[in-house]
Write a structure and sequence with these properties.
- There is one protein chain.
- 29% of the residues lie in helices and 30% in strands.
- It is an alpha+beta fold and 154 residues long.
Length: 154
């Protein structure tokens, strides 16, 4: 990953779920959890989104907005939101500019074949727009609670 703690978080404005726009600049003055996930409605990604949704009130109380980002089209995000009753904002980075800017578009391999994909990673961005914490190669279990604790401490 090319970004480090203390770096200014790369700005973005992308299509969101429910016809909205997910715009980092519009959230200045709030903390932001930006988590990248490979694909909507797959088991790990669904669990991660549900875990963040379950803690949404606590994130709000900590002055923190949670955004999930993938390369899925906005229509797929709407279906994902509706199917699982998700309560976090989802961004559609179809052209890949955000995943590239955050360094999470990486070479992966499965069954001996290499391909490009999103590395599951989370960034905690402070109210001034600087990266306060990075979790690379995230394992879903207990991750949302760990991110919440960091947001509360910031």
């Amino acid at each position: 990953m090319g970004l480090n703690v203390g770096d200014k978080a790369p700005n973005f404005s992308v299509a969101g779920d429910r016809g909205g726009i997910v715009d980092l600049a519009a959230l200045k003055g709030r903390k932001v959890v930006l988590y990248f996930y490979p694909k909507a409605d797959t088991p790990g990604c669904t669990q991660e989104a549900k875990d963040f949704t379950a803690l949404r009130a606590a994130f709000e109380a900590a002055g923190t907005t949670v955004i999930g980002m993938s390369r899925d089209p906005a229509k797929a995000l709407d279906k994902f939101q509706a199917k699982h009753g998700l309560g976090v904002a989802l961004g559609s980075d179809e052209d890949g500019q955000v995943v590239e800017a955050y360094g999470v578009w990486v070479e992966k391999s499965m069954y001996g074949k290499s391909y490009m994909g999103i590395e599951r990673a989370t960034f905690l961005i402070d109210a001034e727009g600087k990266i306060a914490r990075i979790w690379p190669k995230v394992k879903v279990k207990d991750h949302a609670a760990e991110v919440l604790a960091a947001a509360q401490a910031l």
